[in-house]
Amino acid sequence: MSALGALAMTLLLVVPAGAGLGLLRPADYRRGARLSIAATLVSLLAAVTLIWARPETNLYLQVDDFNIYLIVLNNFVSFTTSLFSATYIAHELETGKLTPNYLRFYHAMYQALVFAMNLGLLANNIGLLWVAVELATLVTVLMVGLYRTPAALEAAWKYFILGSLGIALALFGTILIYLAAQPVMGQGLPAMAWDRLLVHASKFDPALLNLAFVFLLLGYGTKAGLVPLHAWLPDAHAEGPTPISAVLSGLLLNVALYAVLRFKMLMSANPSALAPGPLMIMLGLLSLLFAGLMLYRRGDIKRLFAYSSIEHMGIMSFAFGMGGPLANFAGLLHMTMHSLTKSAIFFAVGHISQVKGTQRISTIRGLTATHPLLGWGLVAGVVAIAGMPPFGVFMSEFLVVSSTFARQPWLALPLVIGLLLAFGTLLWRLHGLAFGVPDNAPAVPIKASIWPMLIHLGLVLLAGIWLPGPLVVWFHHVAVLLG
Amino acid sequence: MHSLAFDIAHALAGSMVVLSFLLLYQDRVYALLNVFALHSLALALAVGWQAYLQDAHHLYVTAVVALLFKAIAIPTALHRIVRRLDIHRTLEVVGGVGRDMLAGAALVALAIMVMLPVTEGSNALARQDLAFALAVVLLGLLLMVNRHNAISLVIGFMSLENGLVLAAAGALGMPLVVEISVAFSVLIALIVIGVFLFRIRERFDSVDMQAMDTFREGRRK
């Protein structure tokens, strides 16, 4: 069994890397898009195989109960996004916003990003984890700047500087973790392997661990878009190609948060180290409230949903900071639901902005009348992300709130205020977007790919109504692991 | 441990901190690049000396990489970019040199006060190196915060990375993976930077970040 697992694990890395290199060669753009879809499909199948066939953990890579579900989620959303990219980018080519050369570059970079995220999730070595996040950062910087407009360049440059800064801080934290481990575990690779670090963590010097965690939280927190280090996120989302916004929000933020959680587990394993919870709760609440307030005056539809991503990363960070089986369960569920919902919203928004030729909210009115399918898709997505039943996000947010009430009632107050703020603003915006009086501006006809959005929303709805028993048991198990 | 070997290591790491200070007040592009080359040279020597002391052969690789890429290739490439983009103007220093120096001194004090108590268990060499490395990182940050020019930002970022490599070299027996990847990432970063500098110049007719900021204000209206 583990041979099959090892094969699947190798495929997860080799396929995107190979496809990325292959796509750099000049080719017809249709073939490029098809190759990209095929590669992500193979990765998805490999990821699903890993559920049954676990490979042996080695010094570099591992598959355990925690990362397996993120790996499957990651490759699933990569697959649907590559489907969406195919039509989205074909349209950009037709309207002349991109040239075939850039298109080739886009698909190659997309695969490189999938590779980097898979590597980050599979990494057992904390150095390797860092390399993967850095690679993902550099790749997404190039993609955000793809349109070469002044705004896109500015967004990419800001992202580059802030992202590199975060990455640099995270490396310093990584070095400090090694330094804490080295007296206990000796020199060399084992002292960077996460599973062995966890075993020995109780003997590490707590002061060094504390310092390391502060650096790691700030470093990877920058990548996760936590306030006050979020400044790159709205710009990068608004100016880059929409499929990249979907992947950034849905997946890359998760990878960064995943990295933080791995180190949080190390901290929890050492009784005399600082409790990481309060720090994460503080950053989480700050992000939630800040994003809730910022949502109000957004004029750009992609920027609006980018702030909503900050809000949701805040909720997750809060939930994991609270800790305990119930809050962790809610956090894990929320990570999944947010990924699926937010990428579905960006799929809808991508096509909507192509149809309308603009991203300005004030010029997009009455979508349900003019474009029923896209309009109602957006309605469903926004209703879901705002946290209304019967969608899955409602359930996870409800769990976060109720577990907070049970344990720290006074923390529930800012949490609920933040949630309500975001809820109100999103629905208010949605009203104009979906049900306002449509203007008579000519709409650009497009070939939209609706399926990725419908599949995502369907899954979120299903999760809100009925979570399969084995999945619940498994989430519980991981939640206990997280401590 | 208080021997000549220790003193040399100390002097090399310390000279990086001094060079970081020099970076803070350079107001001409070429001078900034040259000081950065010196900074990287000091890094290469410091890492090489660590390799000799620790008898760690892989650190020689890191030292050579630092020498080739950071002390020679990157400054040369940036020199060429600057010439091609025709940026001969002086770089303005926001807030004045005096304030920068004071802030820098405070940051170094902070680095030493944070690192020394925390690393009491480690050996003296690693402790000093780590304190210096954090100082270099913080000074790099200060440089990035204080300048509006794209070139200064890039140099600030790279001097910060030099500090990280110094920290990694000081940690006994840190595996090679990280160092190679750092070198690699710097290389990619250079490509990214090069591409961007050209594009920014192309679009804004300047590499001054303030041009970008005012542009954004205009968009928000």
UniProtKB/TrEMBL annotation, chain A:
Its EC number is 1.-.-.-. PANTHER family: HYDROGENASE-4 COMPONENT F. It comes from the Bacteria. It is an enzyme of class 1 (oxidoreductase). One of its GO terms (molecular function) is oxidoreductase activity. GO terms for cellular component: plasma membrane. It is found in: Cell membrane; Membrane. The chain crosses the membrane at residues 35-54, 66-90, 102-121, 128-147, 159-181, 202-222, 242-261, 273-295, 315-333, 373-391, 411-430, 450-475. Keywords: Cell membrane, Membrane, Oxidoreductase, Transmembrane, Transmembrane helix. The lineage of its organism: Bacteria, Pseudomonadati, Pseudomonadota, Gammaproteobacteria, Candidatus Competibacteraceae. It holds the Pfam family Proton_antipo_M. InterPro entries: ComplexI-like_HydComp (IPR052175), ND/Mrp_TM (IPR001750). NCBIfam families: PRK06458.1-3, PRK06458.1-5. This is Hydrogenase-4 component F homolog. Residues 123-417 form the NADH:quinone oxidoreductase/Mrp antiporter transmembrane domain. The gene is hyfF. It is a multi-pass membrane protein.
Automatic annotation (TrEMBL), chain B:
The chain crosses the membrane at residues 6-25, 32-52, 58-78, 99-118, 130-146, 153-174, 180-200. It is found in: Cell membrane. This is Hydrogenase-4 component E. InterPro entries: HyfE-like. PANTHER family: HYDROGENASE-4 COMPONENT E. One of its GO terms (cellular component) is plasma membrane. It comes from the Bacteria. The keyword Transferase does not apply. Keywords: Cell membrane, Membrane, Transmembrane, Transmembrane helix. The keyword Transmembrane helix applies. Its main location: membrane. Signal peptide: none annotated. It is a multi-pass membrane protein.
